[in-house]
Amino acid sequence: MFKQKIYCCLTMIFGLMLFSSRSTAQELHYADIASMNIWYNQSLKLDTKSDIRLNYRDVKYQSLVAFRTGGAMLNLPVFKSQQGSASQNSYFNLTAAGTFDQSNAGIFKNNTYLLGLSYAQQLSASQTFLAAGFQVSNTRSIFGSSNVTYPDQFDQYGPLPIGTQDPLRAGRSYSWSSLNAGISMFQNTEEKEWYVGASIRHINKPYTDELKTQANRLSAAFGIQGGLTMKSEFDQFGVYGLANWQANAYEYLIGAKFSKILSKPDASSEGNTIGAGIALRVHDAIIPNVQMKFNKTSIGIHYDLNISGLKASGYARQAFELAITQQLN
Question: Which of 2, 78, 187, 243 could form a disulfide with 128 if both were Cys (CB 3.0 to 4.6 A apart)?
Fold first, then answer.
């Protein structure tokens, strides 16, 4: 019976990917999409528990360039109808988040701040919910070259060794705001948990440069998200995935994970589990990972194994990601 449930999980996620086709900007790419799903789709707050989610991602291309991404997200369900009331159960969720994305030497840096609000309405006694969410975000892009030296003079053989530091005046920046929206349906019972969602980011197609030309206008980003976890008394098996399209760029990620229940939730604890999984970002990386939950603290560690065209060209890329979720109530 459990094998049949696993087969259903795989069928669902690959069916989700089958309906994907292409449509870009400088979006953040997380490996732990389960903990950062609200970044892509505000409506994917699947419970009424307050939490803080932290994520740090480090990417290196040999010794040439490195990128670091960090994010913090606070989720606060602000209203929940009482059990047994005449109305169906429903809740709002308020999200406040901030991220940074920067290169080494501080040449490039993006800071993004986000506020979001979602509403989930129960549709049936089987804990099936329909949710919608909206976000407004502001991004400040900074170009700095204070650690870069430029040649002052040239001769017939090229630049002379004496140079001037930062002739472009470091610190040039520009800010823009985006509107995002998403919908989803989900269910969480003792036997299974599933969700499916669709989102659109940068609805207003903001300009990313003060020149405000069409070439510097951000394209809308479309996405779908889905996941299914089947639960037995001591084990959990889940599959998940997302697909994002933006202009001519795309991202497809699918994964599977298995968790062992060490202790079940009770009145004094949220339970303990440990597990492992593997994901594939198509044409980019294979991502093994481990997941641990100790009471109200969840930890995920991911490592990207590069399979992109960079590997064939002789350039090595390393990527490490750490995600921590702390439940507050």
Answer: 187
Task: Summarize the confidence of residues 211-230 as an average pLDDT.
Answer: 90
Distances (CA, A) of 223 to 71, 174, 227, 278: 20, 26, 14, 21
**What are the tens digits of pLDDT across the range 173-192?**
789 999 999 999 999 888 99
Phi, psi values for residue 233, rounded to 5°: -65, -35
Q: What is the pLDDT of residues 80-134, one digit of tens each?
A: 655 555 445 899 999 999 999 888 766 778 899 999 999 999 998 888 999 999 9
Return d(Cα 6, Cα 235) in angstroms, integer: 12
β partners of residue 195: 186, 227
Q: How far is residue 262's CA from residue 259's CA, in Å, rounded to a whole number?
A: 9
Domain boundaries, the chain: 2-256
Distance CA 200, CA 202 (A): 7
Which CA distances in Å does 120 have to 74, 93, 126, 127, 225?
A: 18, 8, 14, 11, 17
State the CB neighbour count (10 A cutoff) for residue 91: 19
Report the Cα–Cα distance between both ends of the chain, in Å, rounded: 35
Parallel, antiparallel, or unpaired for β 108-122 and 317-327?
unpaired
> pTM score, two decimals?
0.80
* CATH number for the domain formed by residue range(s) 2-256: 2.40.128
Alpha helices, DSSP H only, in the chain?
A: 2-18, 37-40, 309-312
The rounded distance, in Å, linking the Cα atoms of 119 and 130 is 8
